[in-house]
Amino acid sequence: MFRWLAGRGARPSRVAETLTRISPLGWRRARTSLAFLDGLDDREDEALRARAAWLLASKSFSGAQGMVLDDDIMLSIAIQAALPILELDPVLYEGWTEIIVYPGGFLIPRTEVDDSGVVHEYIQEAAGEAWDGGPVILSWEDSCPGMPQAANVVIHEFAHKLDLYGGEADGIPVLDAHPQLRTRQWRGVLTSTFERFERMVTEVEDAIPRDVDPESEEADPWYGSLPLDPYAATDPAEFFAVSSEAFFVDPLPLAKAFPGWYGLLQAYYRQDPLRRLLGPVNVDRL
């Protein structure tokens, strides 16, 4: 109990108990509903199951606005959240205790200071939020199976948690366990790739006709030419989170556009979703 209150992972005995409660049928149903998990081999499948059990045992799940959480919902979220740490130490998800799930999008008060020093307060609708030292908040409508393949709000928010584990959200996760990766190298590739993507977004926005609202669905064909959701151009932290969700669920556009950045993500996560989803033969033909 005190481990949980401190935001530490559950004891191995509790994780083992949780693992036994995940039925083979429930696991298979949850796994097959998430198409981006296709291609996991037997070892990876078992490792993912163990990581999902760790999450279920280590975090409390709470429904908001009348949301009733059943085992299938919690298992689906745990599976998606477990994928980024499939080959990493789950300690990276420690330091906080709760996952809050809303039925749909929720409102977050925001405060921004412009270049003139004027403070602007507004309300923003969100599908997910990861608080530094606090909970992960998710919209089930945006997290449930069947969402567009190129997006994954669960992976996005848990990538923020990986980023925050080492301090401020800056797009640079803790690299101590990766002797082949250096912070200076990571920062250099992140910065150059982020700036290149910013230019790509600007070019797309400049190409949108004046009679088309760039915030409307009518502008989607222009933004669809980008290898990542344009939200990735917000700042380096969002670039890392958006890149991470694309890395796991729709890796081909990312790998083609930014092979160096994809290579760093591959080294950090110790996974290669492109090869897993397309197969070695098809990847070698790219």
TrEMBL record:
Pfam families: Peptidase_M90. InterPro entries: MetalloPept_cat_dom_sf, MtfA_fam, MtfA_N. GO terms for molecular function: aminopeptidase activity; metallopeptidase activity. GO terms for cellular component: cytosol. Signal peptide: none annotated. This is Zinc-dependent peptidase. It comes from Parapusillimonas granuli.
